[in-house]
Design a protein that fits this description.
about 160 residues, alpha+beta, Aminopeptidase, 6-stranded mixed β-sheet, 4 helices
Length: about 160
């Protein structure tokens, strides 16, 4: 099986929703399929505010070409994001590269596609929330030029010992 060059491009939902769903299921293993499908419908319902970019690999097995989705980035336009200086703001809602395709620059290319989409709409800032416990994502965002905007803070008070 030949693994050709990856292509980063906008999702073609009519043909690729099943592959996109499969990647979303890998990212959110404990989320029911119906929830993921509902989210996908919401994303596709408003293309002026949402975009999905995919990393596609053309595979050739026994002379028959087909395409494999190796990763995706979902980006939206939000009216505001805490810690950002401008409004509205681009926001990376989801970013995932399949394990077998990692460490090849696909994640960077997916985020660059999201950033270009945000810029093409006239916005100058993009944000994301990788989760402080996800150290790999935090390091990846930092390596790609993102800086920390705010940290979520939790206050607690013990009422009974």
């Amino acid at each position: 099986m030949y693994l050709g060059a990856m292509t980063i491009r906008a999702l073609q939902p009519e043909e690729e929703w099943r592959g996109w769903l499969g990647l979303r299921e890998l990212l959110w293993k404990d989320t029911p399929e119906q929830v993921l499908l509902g989210e996908m419908e919401g994303i596709l319902a408003n293309p002026a505010r949402n975009a999905v970019f995919i990393a596609e690999s053309p595979l050739n097995s026994a002379g028959f070409p087909f395409h494999l989705l190796a990763g995706f980035a979902e980006v939206t336009l939000r009216d505001s994001v805490e810690g950002c200086a401008t409004r509205p703001v681009g926001y990376v809602e989801a970013w995932y590269v399949a394990p077998a395709s990692r460490r090849k620059g696909l994640g960077r290319q997916l985020l660059e596609a999201a950033e270009q989409w945000v810029l093409s709409r006239g916005y100058t800032e993009i944000a994301s929330d990788p989760g402080l416990k996800n150290e790999v994502n935090v390091l990846a965002y930092r390596a790609l030029g993102y800086s920390e905007g705010t940290r979520p803070m939790l206050f607690r008070k013990k009422l009974i010992d």
